[in-house]
Amino acid sequence: MRGKSHPSVVRRFGIGLAALALVATACSSNDAETQSSSSAEPEVDDAAQLAITPADGTEALAPNTPIQVTAEGGTITEVKVDQVVPAEAGAEGGEAEDPSLYEMTGSLNEDGTLWVSDWNLRPGAEVVVTATAENAEGETSELVHEFTTEEAVPGQRLELLSNFPSSGQTVGVGMPIVVNFDLPVTNKAEVENSMEVISEQGIQGAWNWPSDTMAVFRPETYWEPYQSVQVDMHLAGVEASEGVYGVKNYQLDFEIGREMIMTMHVPDHELVVTVDGEHERTIPVSNGKGSRNFDTTTTGVHVLMERYESLTMDSTTVGIPEDSPGAYNVDVQYAVRTTNSGEFLHEASYNGNIGSANTSNGCTNLRMDDARWVFENTLMGDILDTTGTSRELEWHNGWGYWQMSWDEWLANSATGEAHVTDGSGTPGPVHGA
């Protein structure tokens, strides 16, 4: 993966250059040797001079401190950063961390004299920075600094609670990337910039925050189908809020499948399915009766969420008590969620109005065979675009994130800048002030 972007720096994966061997030749005559020794100038050390910050021997360094390497009289050829967390090595029963998640990349300026680390350091780590440089004659210099970073305090250790999708999943073209944290985040820009999204077909996207513990990435338009997406979450060392540091890095890999778009104009009592732009199926449905807000099917762009082979639909879970008007409790099969407020596509064999009238409590009712087909052939992240009702889907109701225009979505991100998923880095810095 590539590193971060910095002003006046050039992106590099690595910078190893072979040193040139210098061969000294002796003069062939005694006169020449006498002449040389009598007029010789004092030797000048013209080796490249390296400097590293933080200083060698620093203890309890804030993990969000950047590493900087500078060279005078030559160019930087390699910087290696090793991080070892002693507490982790001694822990019993803990899952070993993948060292590749903590490989430090950096950015080098155009003339090769300044290198800056892309990401933050691991809390509670022993860090060794080894830098090499080369002068114009090919002579190499090396400098090593060793220091330690401050540990993350128990109770102030930001970790990942959950994410959608999960690694290995294949999802639809409307799929957002949803990351749930265990603690509130106030330094949202630094956390956004620590999470790099890379797709085979680059596209603009941005993070938003439905709450202080949830970050959501959405591209400008639907993902192109049939491609891989990777999310590198460089959260170790990021200061999520005052004194709260991320302690782990994570990597998420998933696939975008075929493009399935379902459209539904509620007054028409039918659901039209297209796959990769071709008509696949038209399904008769019955939607919400629309007598009150709660039983009105929402208009807007829905993203398919979780699914259940069987489910009890209970009105008390959406705030309608038993024995009150509109209360219900019914068992259904093949239910696919479209909102957090209780809307599903599901089997409703008890509804005799499917295909002719809208009489449901707000869900989209289907016949058994059609419900089974939807359950078996749709993916999390597929799109259901609904029109024709008086109730608008809220952008934060379920995964209704496509309800925002791209300009609105981008303006609501903490950085206010687009994140291009081509591997060129995130929009801004991850380090502390």
Give a count of the beta strands, DSSP E runs of length 2 or more.
Answer: 29
CA-based gyration radius: 30 Å
Enumerate the spans where pLDDT stays under 50 for 5 or more consecutive residues.
5-44
Continuous helix count: 5
Helix/strand structural class = mainly beta
Main sheet characteristics: 5 strands, antiparallel
Plain-language structure description:
- With 433 residues, the protein is mostly beta strands.
- It is 8% helix and 36% strand.
- It is built from 5 helices and 29 strands.
- The strands form 7 sheets. It has a 5-stranded antiparallel β-sheet with strand order 1-5-6-3-2, with no helix packed on it. A 5-stranded antiparallel β-sheet has the order 10-12-15-14-29.
- A hairpin with a 2-residue loop joins strand 21 and strand 22 (278-284).
- The longest helix is centred in the first third of the chain and has 10 residues, at 30-39.
- The chain is elongated, with a radius of gyration of 30 Å.
- The two termini are 25 Å apart.
- The model is unreliable at 5-44 (pLDDT under 50).
Please describe the topology of this protein.
Elements: E1 9-11, H1 30-39, E2 49-53, E3 68-72, E4 75-84, H2 86-89, E5 106-109, E6 114-117, E7 126-134, E8 140-148, E9 157-158, E10 160-164, E11 170-171, E12 177-181, H3 188-193, E13 195-199, E14 204-211, E15 214-219, E16 227-233, E17 239-241, E18 244-246, E19 250-256, E20 260-265, E21 270-275, E22 278-284, E23 300-303, E24 307-314, E25 329-337, E26 344-347, E27 364-366, H4 368-377, E28 383-387, H5 406-411, E29 419-420
